[in-house]
Amino acid sequence: MSNPEDYTVGWISAVATEYVAAQHLLDERHPPAPRMSSRNKNHYTLGKMGMHNVVIATLPLGRYGIASAALVAEEMMNSFPNIRILLMVGIGGGVPTRHDIRLGDIVVSAPGNGSAGVFQYDYGKTIQDQEFLTTGSLTPPQPALLATLAGVAARHVGQGHTYEQTINTVLDNNPRLRSNYGRPDLASDRLYQSHVVHPADDDLPCDPNCGDELLISRRPRTQLEDSPAIHYGLIASANQLMKDAVARDKLAKQKDVLCFEMEAAGLMDNFPCLVIRGICDYADSHKNKVWQGYAAMTAAAYAKDLLGEIEPWQVEQEARIVNYYHEGSNVYNEGSNFYNEGSNAGGTRIEFGGANNGFQVGMNHGQIHHRQG
Ligand SMILES: [Zn+2]
């Protein structure tokens, strides 16, 4: 039996594909934890990654979205009270129009421009007017983790990364994974112009229904460029899947969003959390499942790389995440002022359009939490 107190890193996978990728990047697996409270309904995988003892949890089958992620995280922190770093690792839809983001690339939530790295949004009443409501902002990762991100990014500038090798080793050791988790043929990375909408019948393939002449052609990456590439910036989270390229571009333009996903906001205002997303589609109407397994792998490979950069003593210096939950966010004083602009937990209404760079324009429908203690 493993001792729950030994685990300092929490890792949340939303869907089965992400869970499989995470499990296979562990360096060793540990036996299950002893019996837990009857409240716990999560499935956990315990093991070692680099120098860290890691708990991986997944959302219950078929229960995706923000509320489910929140519940899984809460139960995890209660069952493994020594967790000090929380990672949410999985797949998401990329925004290819402002940055050169391609399928299999990795987006890492990074604070900037008054945002903590992830914000929650919802559609307004009139989707045709492209009105979005931003409803909050995630608690950012601890400063030590952000410093580690900077270290990883700096290393990649000169040396690049070896994720392809990491993934190939997993596939060589687990041949059953190869067909769904290996890198798909590059020809299946198809990016349509934003106005091209997939036929209402989802089952129809893009080719020949969407028109090859409307694809955006991109030059191949060179050997001196990282592939997959890693992008640091803002992630938008909602309970609804983003599948509209025009809406995607509009929100991306306003806030420089790099990625859309469906779970991270569940941890909003509760825990500091780093979100890592492998890009499996372009958040448009042309859904393409072929890249999901590989994108889950690249996100997990980045998380492993990150954990290799941070020392166990650095992790031990962070507060237990369960304390954030029990005490509100007050334990997170240091540096939090920087992020508080725009992190209203209530329902701050934002109307897009015009030169609105910031947050909190309009009326507040919800409570405002003041984080500074
Ligand atoms: Zn299509």
Description of the molecule:
With 373 residues, this protein is α/β, with parallel strands linked by helices. It has a single domain, classed as Rossmann fold (3-Layer(aba) Sandwich), CATH 3.40.50.1580. The protein has 11 helices and 11 strands. It has a 5-stranded mixed barrel. Helix 1 crosses helix 8 and helix 4 packs across helix 8. The protein starts with 8 loop residues before the first strand and ends in a 33-residue tail after the last helix. The structure holds zinc ion. Zinc ion binds next to loops.
Write the layout of secondary structure elements.
Blueprint: E1 9-13, H1 16-24, E2 28-29, E3 43-49, E4 52-58, H2 66-79, E5 85-94, E6 106-109, E7 118-123, E8 132-137, H3 143-159, H4 163-173, H5 178-181, H6 206-209, E9 230-237, H7 245-255, E10 257-261, E11 274-281, H8 292-309, H9 312-316, H10 321-327, H11 336-340
Parallel strand pairs: 1-4, 1-5, 5-11, 6-9, 7-9, 9-10
Antiparallel strand pairs: 2-3, 3-4, 5-10, 6-11, 7-8
Helix pairs in contact: 1-8, 4-8
Q: What share of residues are in beta strands?
A: 15-25%
How much helical structure, as a percent, in the residues?
25-40%
Structural class call reads alpha/beta
Using the coordinates shown, work out and report the CATH topology. Rossmann fold
Oligomer: single chain
Domain Nucleoside phosphorylase: 34-290
Protein name: Nucleoside phosphorylase domain-containing protein
InterPro entries: NLR-like, Nucleoside_phosphorylase_d, Nucleoside_phosphorylase_sf
GO molecular function: catalytic activity
